[in-house]
Design brief:
D-Maltodextrin-Binding Protein, domain 2; five-stranded mixed sheet; single chain; Alpha-Beta Plaits; globular; six-stranded mixed sheet; 15 strands; 8 helices; alpha/beta; 3 domains
């Protein structure tokens, strides 16, 4: 199994550039903001779901996809973690986006008239305390993105969107309604193909499946200890087709171009029943 792919080998295998990047849309979404920051010169292709934004990349219709991987309040973005484990894509840049949730209503609508609140499930969860206090009887409706809730607004329905939204006829709350005002979401820019080991990085992100036996995870973690690599994140997701078996997502501080980190990755890949390098970024 070849672990190291050079920049020249990767470039030879890449399809013709499109100068486009896909992300969860529509345009007013947080993912769209992150795509603007990570891919300033590229045309943004908004997609109706995380899965479709990845599929758009894999079909060669875009050069990159931008996905949220972790939120400061809710932790890992579960649907995205599953996609990262399964798709042949690799993250090469990270962006930390401040999250500022505002209640959105149509102009002239009063709070006492609101019967339903729409937004992405992450936003609904992050504003749960405010919603419980202010709209105790309102129905909460999940939408594919925060921006999609703007399409659902009416005389009895509000939405939760970012403070950056500026749409005629829509009024945003003056204050951030999130329960925790210090909220960030981490986004990754990902491309097709295998990882490169030549570009310097500050962080490395991978997923692995250990043997289903006592001490298996400890054995994996000892590999990183042996190479003096500091783990900054570890979480698990069950394998969909193997009850009781888990995939571990691990992030550690390290430069992927260094021999020490390469050796740790090699040892970990041979130790695990399943291993995938998800990204390396500054």
């Amino acid at each position: 199994m070849k672990l190291y792919v050079t920049e020249e080998e990767r470039a030879a295998d890449m399809p013709q550039k499109t100068n486009k990047v896909s992300c969860l849309g529509p345009e007013e979404s947080y993912s769209f903001l992150a795509a603007e920051a990570l891919c300033k010169e590229l045309e943004i292709v908004p997609c109706p779901s995380f899965a479709e934004s990845v599929a758009t990349l894999l079909r060669g219709e875009t050069d990159y996809v931008v996905l949220p991987v972790e939120n400061a309040i809710n932790g890992g973005i579960v649907p995205v973690l599953d996609l990262l484990a399964e798709a042949e894509i690799f993250g090469d840049e990270e962006y930390l986006l401040p999250i500022d949730h505002r209640l959105a209503v149509l102009e002239g609508v009063k709070y006492e008239d609101i019967e339903a609140i729409c937004s992405h499930e992450q936003a609904l969860s992050q504003c749960a305390g405010f919603l419980r206090r202010t709209f105790p009887n309102a129905t909460l409706l999940a939408t594919p993105s925060t921006a999609e809730s703007l399409r659902r607004l009416d005389g009895h329905t509000a939405g939760i969107v970012g403070a950056h939204v500026n749409m005629k006829g829509v009024v945003l709350s003056q204050e951030n309604i999130a329960d925790n005002k210090t909220n960030f979401t981490r986004f990754l820019r990902l491309r097709r193909g295998e990882p490169s080991y030549e570009k310097q990085s500050a962080m490395v992100f991978l997923c692995a499946v250990c043997a289903h036996k006592p001490g298996a995870l400890l054995g994996l973690l000892k590999i990183f200890q042996r190479y003096s690599l500091n783990l900054t994140r570890i979480e698990s997701r069950p394998l969909k087709d193997s009850y009781g078996v888990y995939r571990f997502f691990i992030e550690f501080a390290g430069d992927i171009s260094s021999a020490r980190v390469r050796s740790a990755i090699t040892d970990a890949s041979y130790y695990c029943a399943e291993f995938k390098l998800i990204g390396a970024y500054m």
